Amino acid sequence: MNAGKVALIVVSISLFGLFSFLEVSYQANGATGARLAPLVEALPQINNPSYKEGQTALLVRPEIKEEPKKETITLGFVGDIMLDRGVRSSVDKRGGDYSYLFQKIKFPKTDILFGNLEGPVAYGGEEIGNLYSFRMHPMTLSVLKEAGFNVLSLANNHIGDWGPAAANESVNNIKDVGLSSVGWGKEDLNDALTIIEKEGIRIGYLAFSDVGPAWLPSKKDEAGVYLATQSNLETYIPLAKKEVDILVVSYHFGEEYEPESNKRQQTLARNSIDLGADLIIGHHPHVTQEIEEYNDGLIAYSLGNFIFDQYFSPETMMGRTLLVEIGPSGIHSYTPGTSFLNGTFQIEALLWDKEIVF
Fold it and tell me: How far apart are CA 212 and CA 190, in angstroms?
């Protein structure tokens, strides 16, 4: 063995001993588990061609800095999404690619984007014969995911249009593409509550329907829609709030095509905040309604239509969008916006108002 190799082995053994000694010394001084400070030692550069005898070099162990967590995150909300009937027909005429609906707009970056999916998204089920009956193609889910959606509510009056089998399939289809659903399940908090954690902040989602289908209620041994009964509110909201930092409650409620909330909506929304909810998001009227600040909570009574085929009025061809900045302790600010549909039910434009500090 030549002298160079011997020297290299000696230096390696010395380094191992040095680090072991320093770590033991650190632990002996009560710093068990702490990151070692940068180590500095003068060592000859044996394998460095530029080394000259008598030189020394610094051996430094750098500290690794962790990226700081964001103090707030952004929640996004849109109105009713219905991708059947006239919307499906329009997309089919243009090649069958549902991404066409989003080609003209780009939703601002959100940490979690939420919308109401107005009906089942399934292959199966049996049509029950409603006057208006919706069933969306499962291929639409990957398009919604690509558009930025994370959570979809199924708590609405059209979820039962093709029976419970289609509703149950919808939950599975949504899960299969990596999205979350809320509003349909068994009579159990684990089914009712969807939790997403971002930047250390736990956000919970509940969804209730005040407009049916009353014949498909959630049961202990059978999945159904979570109805907006006082019993359900008093059961689920306080329990859910214990599990999360911020609780969002979505309601399908109110009168269709009415531009202002009614007493029933106000009672449900305000009562929900009193029970522990931070943010109330409303759907169903197909037109926008007012936003209200109430007892440290925020209520958007109706976001109107996001994508729907109700072309008979300007009010039903537009919707409210909402960005809400939150932290672990509550709402920091919110920014309302307006979306506009064109005659092919494509989102033509998305305009934003000024941010409102909460």
Answer: 22
